[in-house]
Design brief:
single chain, 552 residues, alpha+beta, 20-stranded antiparallel β-sheet, 18 helices, 20 strands, 34% helix
């Protein structure tokens, strides 16, 4: 089935701009001078969500006044970067002027309170794909002085009229709405004031739905149970303060995407940026079964994860967890088809059948190691709990592989190693081949890699040469929750262009492909120094986690 074109990249671009601005800041470099309330964040929720229909595809709410946020980034940035920070902030204001005809300093700043929310409320307002997608956008500003806001916005509409815009007026449910008529060289804008918020939209029908949601709260996203409950979790416990909240309803962004939604809160830390995440999972029976298995096997954090990190070379990017088979089973049920096929290809000739991974039911680590030409080597290390059972599981895996590859044995400094080789006849009637993967078992661990060189170096790796000894890895690990089930570390040496490539390979039009390639988010990857992620809990309906980024 062809994937409908959706405006997901509008939201991605907004988040990307935020990260790009923040990435110019060495957060904490001048901590003593930073506004304390920005670093601490707020525990309030985004109030403009009461205007959003429950099926809204995405929104991003900033909960800190832009002046405070701008001052924070200016003070935290290195002196040589402050000009770039000012330039990026100026670009944001120019985008506001270009897309909404609003002059921030004149029309918004004098009365603005602590919240700005940008939302995609509809992917197709009239629900008629035949005439093209007519996406609905809503921009909401919280007002600390409603009278001053009314005066400023009245002056804004008057200036549009003086400058030649044809203004229209309508009443909807007793609420007055002003709008500009469509002009080829100017955006269409509709606006109103609701409950201490000034709202702008690109279509009056967006404001109609906002008014309906306010007057009938059961229609609003704010009162959707799985949204409200997840937000409450963000507002409790350690690190509850936040500067922004983002929400993406994947089910509304593409027919082939999982029927899930992601809620995320962003906050500052002395060392970087923290994002709490909560993914609302699909509820079909297949996924319930996979998640049940994962929940049973992963009810406690990996006890020996620090030990297994000693087996991973430094400069790697790594994911550490428990029960690889259950993890992959759950993952394949939540991936879109294109990414599922990419996963199947990556682990071939193995399959996603968890029985093939019976030897990795305990602690495991999967590492990606950079090499020349932007390629990656990979290494999987798994803890051995039962030596004989592990040998039998690996033997069964070798038997499966024999259907497609040649299986043989070699010795690496007295350590027996099994290799999977792809053989082919050469032009001179000889036989040539390349090693697809190799594995070996020691007393405590199983090693599997696509590179004999990586396998050999890992077998003789000293603790001081491992990722566990890396200062950056220690920093990220300390920042992630201690009750994590699975966690990972992204090293600065890893080439993240493959993430961008995988997005480009989605079945989209060239226009959308170009939007991804040119989006601020795609450019943000180069500003990441190191990063980490953790899954803290998972059950039949929810998966919670955290991200932590240290930026250049």
């Amino acid at each position: 089935m062809y994937m409908k074109i959706k405006p997901i990249f509008v939201g991605i671009a907004v988040v990307g701009v935020l990260l790009l601005v923040l990435s110019l800041s060495a957060v904490g470099k001048i901590f003593g001078a930073n506004p304390r309330d920005v670093l601490a964040g707020v525990k309030t929720q985004p109030l403009a969500v009461k205007f959003l229909p429950q099926r809204s595809p995405l929104f991003l709410s900033f909960l800190i006044n832009p002046e405070k946020l701008g001052l924070f980034t200016q003070l935290a940035a290195k002196p040589s970067d402050r000009g770039d920070v000012r330039h990026e902030l100026s670009n944001l204001k120019q985008q506001l002027q270009q897309n909404w005809l609003l002059d921030y300093e004149r029309d918004i700043q004098p009365w603005l309170d602590q919240e700005i929310t940008l939302a995609v409320t509809d992917v197709d307002i009239d629900q008629q794909p035949a005439n093209g997608l007519q996406t609905g956008y809503l921009l909401a500003f919280a007002a600390k002085d409603t009278e001053l806001a009314k005066t400023s916005i009245d002056a804004f509409w008057q200036r549009l009229a003086v400058n030649g815009s044809d203004l229209g007026f309508e009443q909807y449910q007793g609420i007055s709405i002003l709008k500009t008529s469509f002009a080829e060289d100017k955006p269409t804008i509709a606006g109103t004031t609701l409950d201490k918020f000034v709202l702008f939209a690109n279509d009056t029908r967006v404001l109609h739905k906002a008014i309906d949601a306010l007057q009938k709260p059961d229609l609003a996203l704010m009162n959707l149970a799985n949204y409200r409950d997840r937000l409450a979790q963000f507002n409790s416990g350690k690190n509850a303060g936040k500067i922004a909240v983002a929400y993406v309803n994947l089910a509304e962004l593409g027919e082939e995407l999982p029927k899930e939604s992601l809620l995320m809160s962003l906050s500052f830390d002395k060392s970087g940026i923290r994002a709490k995440t909560s993914l609302n999972l699909e509820t079909n029976e297949q996924i319930k079964t996979a998640v049940d298995a994962q929940t049973i096997k992963l009810k406690n954090p990996p006890k020996n994860s620090s030990n297994i990190a000693n087996k991973i070379p430094s400069a790697s990017s790594v994911s550490i967890g428990n029960n690889l088979g259950a993890t992959l089973q759950e993952l394949q049920n939540t991936l879109i088809p294109e990414w599922k096929q990419a996963l199947i290809k990556a682990i071939a000739p193995m399959t996603l059948d968890s029985s093939n991974l019976a030897w990795a039911q305990h602690d495991y680590a999967i590492a990606l190691l950079p090499k020349a030409n932007h390629d990656l080597d990979w290494l999987l290390v798994a803890k051995v709990e039962d030596v004989n059972a592990t040998k039998e599981s690996l033997s069964n895996l070798d038997q499966l592989v024999r259907n497609k590859l040649t299986v043989g044995e070699i010795s690496l400094k007295a350590q027996p190693v099994t290799i999977w080789t792809n053989l082919s006849a050469s032009n001179n009637s000889g036989v040539s081949g390349n090693v697809v993967a190799a594995h070996t078992q020691t007393k405590d661990y199983v090693y599997l890699s696509n590179s004999l060189a990586v396998l050999e170096s890992s077998l003789k790796l000293k603790n001081s040469e491992s990722i566990a000894a890396s200062k950056r890895f220690k920093t990220i690990s300390a920042k992630l929750p201690s009750d994590r089930l699975t966690y990972g570390y992204i090293d600065k040496n890893i080439d993240l262009s493959w993430v961008r490539t995988s997005l480009l390979n989605l079945k989209e039009t060239s226009e959308i492909t170009q939007n991804i390639s040119n989006s601020p988010l795609a450019q943000t990857f180069k500003h990441i120094e190191v990063g980490g992620f953790a899954i803290t809990s998972t059950d039949k309906s929810m998966q919670n986690g955290e991200l932590f980024l240290i930026l250049k």
